[in-house]
Amino acid sequence: MKHSKGDNLNGWLIIDKPEGINSTTIVNQTRHLLNAKKNGHTGTLDPFASGVLPIAFGEATKLISYVMDGDKEYEFTLQFGSTTDTLDPTGSVTSTCTRIPTQQEIIDIIPKFIGTVNQVPPIYSAIKINGKRAYDLARNKKHFIMPSRTIKIHRLDVIDFPSTTSARFFVSCSKGTYIRTLGADIAKSLDSLGYLSSLRRTKCANFNLSNTILLENLKNIEYIGERQKKLLPLLTSLCDITVIAVKEEDASKLKQGQRISPRSYNISNLIGEDVAATLNDELVALVRIEENRISPIRVFNL
């Protein structure tokens, strides 16, 4: 999203999103609070959910796809005995049951959901079906078939049991995983019904809760310049990528979309890889290392 009269800011602001507000509202508020020209978020969190919401400013928006492709971690509470049309507390109850699994049954079912899993996303989701959002079709009572997708659950643990009818979980998963569906599937596998009563994202790609700032704390900072200092460098989203420092003349060529020679760099072990090229610790470009050339993939104008 753009604001023509804002400042040209570049970097990441990691918000600890509160419950009861949607991700787009967070984007709009942070753009205003930092007087920024352009920003956008990486992966929507449902209004009822909280947690890590990375906001990209300026040139960082070019890296949104890299963050969205990263693994995520969540904590969620699954309420057994009923389900809603949205699979969360914002929806209407559609079915109830008396079957409540025991704590041991819940623990024993965990291995079934670890690894590669086929998952059908909830009908109340932002996935497009023939050009239209699934949640719009669902709200208008339109019939459609939601296609399944393959996702990966790296880790799934039971944290505790808040009540006799609920369980709280930790999950580490691949992109595209719908935790609401995971919760409903766990309940179904235990011959019960369930919906998520709470959801908190604790990690999004390289960002976790230690990187976040509360929206209210950001609002309480009096001066815009001080708020802008909360931005993290672009490279923080790429901390697991190889970095090579390039010469000033080569940096200029890369910024113009030109290839450079690899002869000046000891990178023979990086052939075929994508790496980050920097000048004075500032991101210049994402490049591909080839035997006879270094080619820019994505250029940054900082």
What order do the helices and strands come in, and which of them pair?
Layout: E1 11-17, H1 23-33, E2 39-41, E3 50-57, H2 64-68, E4 72-80, E5 82-84, E6 93-96, H3 103-109, E7 115-119, E8 128-129, E9 132-133, H4 134-139, E10 149-163, E11 166-173, H5 179-189, E12 194-204, E13 207-208, E14 213-214, H6 215-220, H7 224-228, E15 243-245, H8 248-255, E16 274-279, E17 282-289, E18 294-299
Parallel strand pairs: 1-14, 3-12, 15-16
Antiparallel strand pairs: 1-3, 2-3, 4-11, 4-12, 5-6, 7-10, 8-9, 10-11, 12-13, 16-17, 17-18
Structure report:
This protein is α+β, with helices and mostly antiparallel strands and 302 residues long. It has 8 helices and 18 strands. It has helices at residues 23-33, 64-68, 103-109, 134-139, 179-189, 215-220, 224-228, 248-255; strands at residues 11-17, 39-41, 50-57, 72-80, 82-84, 93-96, 115-119, 128-129, 132-133, 149-163, 166-173, 194-204, 207-208, 213-214, 243-245, 274-279, 282-289, 294-299. Strands 1, 2, 3, 4, 7, 10, 11, 12, 13 and 14 form a 10-stranded mixed beta sheet that branches. Strands 15-16-17-18 form a 4-stranded mixed beta sheet, covered by helices on one side. It has a two-stranded antiparallel ribbon with strand order 5-6. It starts with 10 loop residues before the first strand and ends with a strand.
Task: Name the descriptors.
globular, ten-stranded mixed sheet, alpha+beta, 8 helices, 302 residues
Offer a concise description of the structure.
It contains eight helices and 18 strands.
